[in-house]
Amino acid sequence: MSDPVHVALALDILAPFASVAVVGLLMLIGNRRPSEETAVRLVTAGLLVSVLAGVAVLGAYWGVAGAAVEGDIEFGDWLRIGDFVIPAVLRVDGISVTISLFASVLTALIARFSRTYLHKEPGFVRFFVLLGLFATGTQLVALAGALELFFAGWEIIGISSAFFIGFFHERAEPVRSSIRAFATYRFSDAGLLIATVATLEFLGSARFSTFERAGALEPFQATVLALLFLVSAMGKSAQLPFSGWLPRAMEGPTPSSALFYGAVSIHAGLFLLLRVWPVLEVSPAARAIGVVVGLSTAVYAALVVRVHTDAKGALAHATLAQVGLILAEICMGWTTLALTHLVCHALLRLGQYLKAPNMIHDTHRLGHGPHGPSRLERWSPKLADRVYAASLHRLRLDDRIDVAFSPVLAVARTLERGDRWLRRTLSLDGASS
Amino acid sequence: MTPMAPMLSAPWEALVVCLLLLVAPAVASQRRSPPWLLAGLIVSVVVALFASSGTVAYVGISAGAVLHALAARPWSRTGAAMLASATAIALATAGAIHLGQMPMAFGLSCLALALRAGVLPFHAGVASLCERMPLVQTQQLSSTIALVFVHLRHVDHHVVAIEWAPVLVRYGAFAALAAALITLVQKDLRGFYRGTTAMHGGMLFAAVGAASIGNFAAALLVAVAMGLALGGLGIMITSLEERTGPAAFGGPGGRGGPFPRLAASFALFGGAGVGLPGTAGFVADDLLLHALWMESPASTVVMILSSAFLAVATLMAFSSVFLGRTSPSLAPDLYPRERVVAVALVSLLLVLGFAPGVLLGPADAFLSAPQ
Question: How far apart are CA A251 and CA A325, in angstroms?
Fold first, then answer.
């Protein structure tokens, strides 16, 4: 641990977490809630340390002060019981260093922006706590050397995302949207969790470095693993049929929307696929499905964005279209292009989201150009009407998912009735609920 | 004279968790248990954990169950009856071990576990405790951890345990799924607590099944994480209801405004119960899933789905109770005594989340060795 690279990597992840822990502890044991200033100073300090640590890791990766550092960096075992080991291992390579520094810089920028933007907003301290938590999650995801650590970061991102969506909880809609987004995350995360356990069984270790042996997997095993990773990525990156939660996620404050759904979180699924690329590479079926899903999402989002009437919702679908294209690029094997596309796209969207509140002003200033009938409207007005209606209702995706989920709720209600009957029958306490 | 194992080999860590759960409700609540009851419960847990003879350990467990039954009696006769039955079953287990009837001892011990952990459909007693007196349920969880420990140590090494492992794993997984689904459609906070407890009971049962094939540490950590998370939840629910009365899920309740510390503590305990990263719940879930996969991949998938349903139910419960337009209240947020308990339980959850080896290393070495 005394090695500077170890220290930098540890600080990269733990500094934001420590700042959140201190704010949380002050809140829990102090007599007064921490002030805005205290929360900002602590969390920003954690984020800045994370950025500096990220720069140091980049320097080490480039070999600025000595031999270049690359590969698995061991921190011992998180848990060891007999032969079963959960390693505390981080990975330094081109992808991890890029995404780690990129995410920490953007998070620090958002913290600076939000300090003014959310000043005096109820929930200001909560926002900064969640931001620090999110930074911890992204750094874990970016630098994890094994699936267990990756999953921990992945979950932290999901939880902080849900709480950001429900940030303005005085209204009912953001709360409902946060539950829907969280449910989508949790069920698609099941894919990653099953894949983590299965990887350990199939490859003997859940380290990313062992994926280089993915060629030795049986075709069936490789396809199952790749599909599980794909499902998880689809949920996190809001690909069809899980796209419904993204426009709802715009209920959150603009800075968090910019960071999560413009820049970092929405691309986390794609990052996962880049990380497990050796498994995808040996599974043509999963890659074909990924291409179809990505392109379908791009078409769907491009149609919806044309009829969307609110700025952040339109931006969400524009983001979705590009994310769909990046997914298709990854699944076609163009991973370097995909990584470049991902970073450039994230930067563009971050700026656009942050400027979204000014959009009405800009539109008035710049004015609208004349809008004639589209080619489709000229070629087939009836089809154009249908496409318009379908886009306006976003293909009724949420309704369809609700319908698909309704049998589960019906089973739950039946079980609940049975449970109530059983407890009443066995109760010695008189009336019971 | 109770036969005691050498002190160094005994799992002191398990004792610390059990003691914390026994003492926490007494510290947090104004309704104090009589000192003799608390002292008796502590002695019974110590005897159960440290006795090297299975017979004595189960007698310790049954003594604890009698005391819990006495504590539960004024609030919940169903809970008291369940605990009395568990007492009789634990005594019968002690007798079976004494006579060398290990298959019978294993079956009886599993039945005692199902009753004490509230596994569906043996959950009426625990459900009644959750509904009527969560603090007694919190204390009851401490000796459930002791029971798991005693089960793993004294009856789980027998061949019958290995033969029955597939049944227990599958049964536990499906019981957890059913309980998670039931939790999803609850309409009040007590119902949520009841369902969550039953889901964890199923999880614990599956973990005990998987322990039979060598995963002792997973089962112990599941029990400990369950105890700390559900114990914390029980205390927070009691604290909330002492301030605002029963909490129904009729829409956003807005209690987060007047009680931010209570809301944060509830979120942490609820999160730990569904595998929040950084807490013992995360490591317990991970370890359990790996253990289950060795026995039944389908049960692993069922367990993952159960956890997902419970996570959604937890967020829904949190949203209904704490989010929404702030409802003004003159009642104070958590008192210092309640904060001390919350910080202690959260700290232990975090320590076991970041360094699970502290508990699991010694406990696994201890439990894996045939007794």
Answer: 25
Both tokens of B21, joined, read 């759960």
Task: Label residue A296 exposed, middle or buried (CB < 10 Å: 0-12, 13-18, 19+).
Answer: middle
C-alpha dist (Å) from residue A307 to A257, A313, A318, A375, A391: 21, 10, 12, 16, 7
**Cross-strand bridge partners of residue A80:** A85
Closest by Cα among B169, B224, B194 to B359: B224
Written as one string, the DSSP assignment of B314-364 is: HHHHHHHHH-SSPPP--S-S--HHHHHHHHHHHHHHHHHHH-THHHHHHHH
Q: Which of B81, B312, B368 sits opposite A182 (nearest CB)?
A: B312
Contact B308 A186 (CB under 8 A): yes
Closest CA to A243 of A297, A295, A191: A297
Cα separation, A315 vs A299, whole angstroms: 15
CA distance B363 to B223: 13
Backbone angles phi, psi at B28, to 5 degrees: -75, -35
Structural contact between residues B214 and B270, judged by C-beta atoms closer than 8 angstroms: no
| Residue-wise burial string across B108-145, b where 16 or more C-beta atoms lie within 10 A, e elsewhere | bbbbbbbbbbbbbebbbbbbbbbbbbbbbbbbbbbbbb
Q: How many CB atoms lie within 10 A of CB A379?
A: 10
Task: Find the residue in B nearest to A25 (Cα).
Answer: B343
**Is some CB atom of chain B closer than 8 A to the CB atom of A81?**
yes
Query: Is-contact B37 A389, C-beta < 8 A?
Result: no
| Contact (CB<8Å) B315/A162 | yes
A249-303 residue pLDDT tens: 888 888 888 888 888 889 999 999 999 999 999 999 999 999 999 999 999 999 8
CB B94 within 8 A of CB B43: no
Token pair listed for A131: 């931001």
Domain boundaries, chain A: 1-145, 376-420
B19-44: pLDDT as tens digits? 999 988 888 887 777 888 899 999 99
**CA nearest to A147 within chain B:** B286
Q: Can you give the pLDDT at residue B370? A: 60
The verdict on B19 touching A (C-beta cutoff 8 Å) is: no
CA distance B2 to chain A (A): 31
Q: Where do the structural domains in chain B lie, given as residue ranges?
A: 8-368
Spatial separation of the C-alpha atoms in residues A233 and A268, rounded to whole Å: 7
B contacts of A28 (beta carbons < 8 Å): 261, 264-265, 339, 342-343, 346
Task: Report pTM.
Answer: 0.92
Chain B hits for A412, CB-CB cut-off 8 Å, are: 181-182, 184-185
Query: Which pLDDT tens digit goes with each residue over B157-182?
Result: 888 888 898 999 999 999 999 999 99
Q: In Å, how far from its chain's centre is CA A11?
A: 22
